[in-house]
């Protein structure tokens, strides 16, 4: 019952998280920042604007991206299979990439290309994370993982590599080359306007929920530890976002694959032999 | 009754275009977005994408090279939209007025809603202009909504939607 309420409210929770994050980022820069409900104001405004549709598949891909992400979040909240959720999340990203390639805008193509490269960088780490949790708990089932005690001491390196890919997923500095709005004007989202863009906006909010639910998985059955982990990662991600510049997409791949993949493999090999 | 009109005033996304400016006004616009003046507290985002923008900030006298882009960008912003001319150059041509390679101000090409004087325009003036532009945005939006209600069909939508709606209304009339 409580799960279904959370699933229905997931985009709203994500939007509140995004609004809160904009305030936190502003306070870090000694600014006031927008109100907490700013994402909702943006959404209501977008509904009033005129719609420029490129073609039907382009709009459909945005819709599919949003719905698939919502399903991923629902599966994680319901405690379904972790590996399955990660692959479904991959499918959601692929819908976004297909949306980018379905129009003729050069910026959209470039954004989709970068999205693919970023996918190559972070997807192995997500899968290795699932493998690590499997080795620790003996199950890919999220509800089973949640019954164990915290896996943080054993899977610390995997947790660190998950923290490394969070800026890629949430499009934050230094890993925001996929949607760099000063150079490729948002990448895949460039051709969306009005309420079609709203689906991408809400999908962005759902990504927040997805990422922080994954972070909370490392806390196991302890709710207070989960909240602590989410709060710490949230603050660290925003601190890094405020204090670093964007790196090129090649450097993003080198850094994420170089550090993240090696840390993950070390952790899994360690779990296997120790 | 619940209405969207309380919300849409709070999220003006701006598109900034330099139509041959000396960069003075552009620096002042960026100063508005910086921590000291903090235009983001009104919900402003500097989105470089015309398809998602509401307020069009133009600086500079329009040079011959930049006028086509100016019009292209203006037409790519979906309605409702508001144009602000920032600085003396964008208003009248400023010190470049009646030079051989310059159009005198942007209102020769696109309708301007708010004029901001100054060379360079100060951040306080630009912020005031944006706040006024938000009110004009709200007014334009009301006009669009009432027009939609009047004709009971989405007159501002794309052609194919219009056709289907007109066909439907004709069918209703027949019945």
What is the 3D shape of chain B? Answer: globular
Give the chain pair forming the largest contact, with residue counts: A-B, 34 and 27 residues
Distance between the termini of chain B: 33 Å
Q: Give the CA-based shape of chain A.
A: globular
Radius of gyration of chain A: 18 Å
Which band does the percent of strand residues of chain B land in?
A: 5-15%
| Major sheet details of chain B | 5 strands, parallel
- Total beta strand runs of chain B: 7
Provide the gyration radius of chain B in Å: 19 Å
Q: Give the biggest sheet of chain A.
A: none
Structural class label of chain B: alpha/beta
**What is the CATH architecture descriptor of chain B?**
3-Layer(aba) Sandwich
CATH class of chain B equals: Alpha Beta
The helix/strand order of chain B is: EHEEEHEHEEHH
Number of helical regions of chain A:
10
Question: What integer is the average pLDDT of chain B?
Answer: 80
Residues in helix, % of chain B: 40-55%
Order of helices and strands of chain A: HHHHHHHHHH
For the record, give the distance between the C-alpha atoms at the N and C termini of chain A, rounded to a whole number: 41 Å
| Spatial order of the strands forming the largest sheet of chain B | 2-1-3-5-7
Membrane topology (chain A): Multi-pass membrane protein
Subcellular location (chain A): Membrane
Pfam families (chain A): NADHdh
Organism (chain A): Candidatus Marinarcus aquaticus
The gist of it:
Chain A is mainly α and 274 residues long.
What would your notes on this structure say?
Chain B: Residues 22-132 form the NADH:ubiquinone oxidoreductase-like 20kDa subunit domain. Chain B: Keywords: 4Fe-4S, Iron, Iron-sulfur, Metal-binding. Chain B: Belongs to the complex I 20 kDa subunit family. Chain B: Its cofactor is [4Fe-4S] cluster. Chain B: Pfam families: Oxidored_q6 (PF01058). The complex is a heterodimer of chains A (274) and B (175). Chain A is mainly alpha-helical and 274 residues long. Chain A has one domain (1-273). In chain A, 74% of the residues lie in helices and 0% in strands. Chain A has helices at residues 2-28, 38-48, 56-78, 82-101, 106-137, 142-145, 156-170, 194-217, 223-243, 249-273. In chain A, α8 (194-217) crosses α9 (223-243). Chain B has 175 residues and is α/β, with parallel strands linked by helices. Chain B has one domain (4-148): Rossmann fold. Chain B is 41% helix and 14% strand. Chain B is globular, with a radius of gyration of 19 Å. Chain B starts with 12 loop residues before the first strand and ends with a helix. The A-B interface holds A 22, 26, 29-35, 38, 40-42, 44-53, 181-182, 185-186, 189-194, 197 and B 4, 7-8, 10-11, 13, 35, 38, 40-43, 47-49, 51-52, 54, 78-80, 141, 144-145, 156-158.
């Amino acid at each position: 019952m409580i799960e279904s309420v959370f699933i229905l409210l997931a985009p709203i929770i994500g939007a509140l998280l995004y609004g809160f994050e904009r305030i936190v980022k502003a306070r870090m820069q000694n600014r006031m920042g927008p109100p907490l409900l700013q994402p909702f104001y943006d959404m209501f405004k977008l509904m009033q604007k005129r719609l420029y549709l490129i073609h039907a598949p382009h709009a459909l891909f945005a819709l599919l991206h949003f719905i698939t992400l919502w399903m991923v979040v629902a599966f994680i909240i319901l405690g379904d299979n972790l590996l399955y959720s990660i692959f479904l999340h991959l499918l959601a990203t692929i819908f976004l990439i297909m949306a980018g390639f379905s129009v003729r805008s050069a910026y959209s193509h470039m954004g989709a290309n970068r999205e693919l490269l970023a996918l190559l960088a972070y997807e192995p780490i997500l899968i290795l994370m699932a493998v690590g949790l499997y080795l620790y708990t003996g199950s890919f089932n999220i509800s089973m993982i949640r019954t164990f005690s915290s896996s943080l001491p054993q899977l610390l390196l995997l947790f660190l590599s998950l923290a490394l890919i969070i800026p890629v997923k949430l499009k934050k500095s230094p890993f925001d080359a996929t949607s760099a709005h000063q150079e490729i004007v948002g990448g895949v989202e460039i051709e969306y306007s009005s309420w079609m863009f709203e689906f991408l906006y809400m999908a962005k909010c759902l990504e927040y929920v997805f990422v922080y639910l994954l972070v909370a998985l490392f806390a196991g059955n302890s709710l207070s530890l989960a909240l602590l982990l989410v709060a710490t990662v949230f603050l660290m991600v925003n601190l890094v976002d405020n204090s670093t510049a964007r790196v090129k997409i090649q450097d993003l791949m080198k850094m994420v694959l170089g550090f993240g993949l090696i840390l993950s493999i070390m952790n899994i090999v360690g779990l296997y032999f120790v | 009754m619940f209405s969207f009109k309380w919300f849409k005033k709070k999220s003006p996304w701006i598109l900034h275009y330099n139509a041959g400016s000396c960069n003075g006004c552009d620096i002042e616009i960026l100063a508005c977005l910086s921590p000291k003046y903090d235009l983001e507290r009104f919900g402003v985002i500097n989105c470089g994408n015309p398809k998602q923008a509401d307020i069009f900030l133009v600086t500079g006298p329009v040079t011959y090279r930049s006028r086509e882009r100016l019009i292209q960008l203006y037409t790519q912003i979906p309605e409702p939209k508001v144009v602000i001319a920032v600085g003396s150059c964008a208003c009248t041509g400023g010190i470049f007025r009646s030079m051989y390679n310059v159009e005198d101000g942007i209102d020769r090409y696109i309708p301007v809603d708010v004029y901001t004087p100054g060379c360079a325009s100060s951040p306080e003036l630009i912020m005031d202009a944006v706040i006024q532009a938000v009110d004009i945005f709200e007014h334009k939006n009301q006009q669009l909504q009432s027009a939609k209600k009047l004709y009971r069909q989405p007159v501002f939508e794309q052609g194919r939607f219009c056709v289907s709606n007109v066909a439907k209304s004709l069918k209703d009339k027949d019945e």
